[in-house]
Specification:
CATH architecture of the largest domain in chain B: Orthogonal Bundle
Shape of chain A: globular
Structural class of chain B: alpha+beta
Number of strands of chain B: 6
Number of strands of chain A: 11
Number of helices of chain A: 13
Distance between the termini of chain A: 41 Å
Oligomer: heterodimer
Number of helices of chain B: 13
Strand content of chain A: 15-25%
Largest sheet of chain B: 4 strands, antiparallel
Helix content of chain A: 25-40%
Order of helices and strands of chain B: HHHEEEEEEHHHHHHHHHH
Largest sheet of chain A: 7 strands, mixed
CATH architecture of one domain in chain A: 3-Layer(aba) Sandwich
Structural class of chain A: alpha/beta
Number of domains of chain B: 2
Strand content of chain B: 5-15%
CATH superfamily of one domain in chain A: P-loop containing nucleotide triphosphate hydrolases
Strand order of the largest sheet of chain B: 1-2-5-6
Radius of gyration of chain A: 21 Å
CATH topology of one domain in chain A: Rossmann fold
Order of helices and strands of chain A: HHEEEHEEHEHHHHEHEHEEHHHE
Chain lengths: ~350, ~375
């Protein structure tokens, strides 16, 4: 992307965006002795080139399973993965393992939550980066090594030649997380899925890593699915936000609008339970109750047992996605007609 | 990694029994390599004047109490007129000095160089005087020489068999743990079936398959295969368990995400991560293999003459009357005990040094 095109307003750019990933009615169910666990249930979203989409939700709401489903790492059978995942015109559901390996790592890569356990302790990080390069890129070893060291330098790793031949245990968590980002970048993928990439890090390191990811996202102009439970990081990095609850997307919004004007009661609850200065000395507000277990979901709207504004309808009927404003989506009966305020 | 290695070595060194075992094993294996040179006689050479000769007394002082260096007396054989047993009496009229590096029966050192030099012996025809540290058997063969040469089978069968069985076990276990589901269930039920066979009859059954017409080296490898085909199940189970937990680690998921093929994940990431266990379990299962070979050979289904092994040597000591009149035929048993104990000590020391998991299953 040239400097001039960066200056183009978001609205104008959206006219010539390329839709890179379209997920429609994705269902990922697991068969367990206790019954069918609906980890992801009829989730639909899309991702444009150069865009950062945040999937937000509490633990167990299906964010990570959505990511693994896109990567074809949920084995079906025994699990049940249905719906449609279209990546640049290729249907990923039902794709053969060989074809999938071409995409996985090469065109869609992933950054993990725990940098410490995401590297094999037995090999140097250089070796592990090399393994990825060898699997996908046509480079010989010398060129691969040069490119790896360039990538390490690009993510501000000091002394990359030395780091290249170090073992994971010789590095700090923040350093490893940056090397994992390098690993995801080595093949210049179209999409990077970042699964809570900052959760395991100190707050200061978190900020560094987030800045780095933003910077890279700008420079490489790739798309990113950013999975997190931390609304603070969402505000930092995302263009659009999808809020997930119990396996469903309950709200879709551009990032600024989500914070200024949350539509779903759950989103509102999340936003009000953030730590703020006004709450000093008081106990923090919170959402009553717990996320339902995926094998005992309530009937109707899945949020209704915890919803302060639940109506009779909510207890029996699942809300479809309503679109009360442009570019917005909310799965809540309050917005069935007109304003749900 | 360097730090870990240093810690392992330090902790191993503190284990006294382990160090003692290691020293004993080093000596045993050195002797094994140089067996033909150290042995004073060819292990198959028969000496009809020394049938069932007891261990030779090596003396230093003659009748008059004078220092003469190490020497032996020639033996004369006679039959006890009452019991008809062979009786050996020392002919004290002359001494036969025991010397280092004496020429004797011809052999090939390590199968390469033809020579007749032996580490020690007497410069005298084996018709009149012999030096037999552990006596002779019913063909007048030197038991000491036979024990040394027998160690070439007994001590390597354990290494080879263990290597093979750990190899099979690691791969089967890793496949079972990594793929899970039906593959896992299939493999696990199959191993359980194999494990529930009584071990000795199964050995014997498999050993019978080895055709008697095979040359002795083939028989040797046949025995190794038989031993390892039965020994891999324990390793497979534990490796499966370790892989079950390892495959949930993020680096395996990361490798999958990066598009590394499954076989490469198994061989490069999963099995190497169980290596500390594999090393320990190998050391601990070598004694089992040695005992297994001894058992098969003792029962007459393993190593066959003219090759020899400790188990086969013990076969001569099967009857009680034999033991009573020629107790030195039990010496190979001592060697088995010492070797097995040493391996166990080394294994225990290694386990304590290497592994934070203290529950290592012996195979």
């Amino acid at each position: 992307m040239s400097a001039s095109s960066k200056l183009i307003e978001r609205g104008e750019r959206s006219e010539r965006v390329e839709r890179i990933l379209t997920v429609e009615n994705l269902k990922t169910y697991f068969r367990t002795p206790e019954g069918l666990v609906k980890a992801v249930d009829e989730v639909s979203f899309h991702l444009d080139r150069g865009e950062v989409l945040a999937l937000v939700g509490e633990s167990g709401c299906g964010k990570s399973v959505t990511a693994l489903s896109i990567l074809g790492l949920v084995k079906s059978p025994p699990a049940l993965v249905e719906g449609s995942i279209e990546f640049r015109g290729t249907q990923l559901i039902g794709l053969g393992p060989k074809e999938y390996r071409e995409i996985r790592g090469r065109q869609i890569s992933m950054i993990f939550q725990e940098p410490m356990s995401a590297f094999d302790p037995l090999y140097t990080v250089g070796y592990q980066l090399m393994e990825v390069a060898r699997a996908h890129m046509p480079w010989d070893d010398a060129e691969a090594k040069a490119r790896i060291i360039d990538t390490l330098r690009a993510i501000h790793i000091p002394d990359p030649e030395k780091r290249y031949s170090e073992y994971p245990h010789e590095m700090s968590g923040g350093m490893l997380q940056r090397i994992m980002i390098a690993m995801a970048l080595i093949t210049s993928p179209e999409i990077i899925i970042a699964d809570e990439p900052t959760t395991a890090l100190d707050v200061t390191i978190q900020a560094q890593v987030l800045n780095l990811m933003q910077e890279l996202q700008r420079d490489y102009h790739g798309s990113m699915i950013f999975i997190t439970h931390d609304l603070g990081t969402v505000a930092e990095v995302a263009d659009r936000v999808h809020v997930m609850y119990a396996g469903k997307i309950v709200e879709k919004a551009p990032v600024v609008e989500l914070f200024e004007d949350p539509l779903h009661p759950y989103t509102l609850g999340l936003l009000t339970s953030r730590v703020k200065r006004e709450y000093k000395g008081e106990s923090l507000p919170f959402i009553e109750g717990n996320v339902p277990r995926a094998d005992e979901l309530p009937e109707g709207c899945r949020f209704h047992p915890r919803c302060p504004r639940a109506m009779d309808k909510c207890r029996t009927l699942e809300p479809p996605e309503f679109s009360p404003r442009p570019n917005r989506g909310v799965a809540c009966w309050l917005w069935e007609e007109g304003d749900g305020r | 990694m360097e730090g870990t290695r240093a810690r392992i070595i330090r902790s191993f060194r503190r284990h006294r029994l382990g160090m003692a075992g290691l020293a004993v094993l080093t000596v045993l294996y050195l002797v094994m390599i140089l067996a033909d040179f150290i042995a004073p006689y060819n292990f198959t050479a028969t000496h009809r004047n020394f049938i069932y000769a007891p261990p030779t007394k090596i003396r230093f002082f003659d009748e008059d109490g004078r220092w003469r260096g190490p020497f032996v007396y020639p033996l004369t054989r006679s039959r006890d007129p009452v019991t008809f047993q062979l009786v050996f009496t020392e002919d004290r009229s002359r001494i036969v000095p025991v010397k280092l590096f004496v020429p004797g029966e011809e052999y090939k050192l390590m199968g390469l160089f033809k020579t007749n030099l032996h580490l020690f012996g007497v410069e005298e025809s084996p018709d009149t005087a012999m030096v037999l540290p552990f006596g002779a058997d019913r063909f007048g063969r030197c038991v000491f020489s036979r024990v040394l040469v027998g160690s070439q089978v007994s001590l390597t069968v354990g290494l080879l068999g263990t290597f093979l069985s750990v190899f099979i076990g690691a791969i089967v276990g890793a496949l079972s743990g990594y793929y899970g589901g039906w593959v896992d269930i299939g493999i696990q039920r199959f191993t359980e079936l194999l494990r529930s066979f009584p071990r000795i009859p199964l050995w014997l059954a498999l050993a019978v398959i080895v055709p008697p017409s095979w040359p002795s080296t083939w028989v040797y490898f046949g025995i190794v295969t038989v031993l390892s085909l039965i020994g891999w199940m324990g390793v497979a189970r534990v490796v499966r368990g370790m892989v079950l937990s390892l495959r949930e680690k993020e680096f395996v998921l990361a490798a999958q995400v990066m598009g590394v093929p499954s076989m490469k994940i198994i061989t490069k990431h999963l099995i190497p991560n169980t290596l500390s266990y594999l090393i320990v379990v190998s050391t601990l299962s070598i004694p089992g293999m040695i005992l297994g070979e001894s058992t098969i050979s003792f029962l007459g289904l393993g190593i066959k003459e003219p090759m020899t092994s400790w188990g086969l040597l013990l076969k001569q000591a099967q009857s009680l009357s034999e033991l009573q009149s020629h107790p030195w035929l039990m010496v190979p048993g001592l060697f088995i005990i010492v070797a097995v104990l040493s391996f166990n000590f080394v294994g225990d020391a290694l386990r304590d040094a290497v592994d934070p998991y203290r529950t290592v299953e012996k195979v």
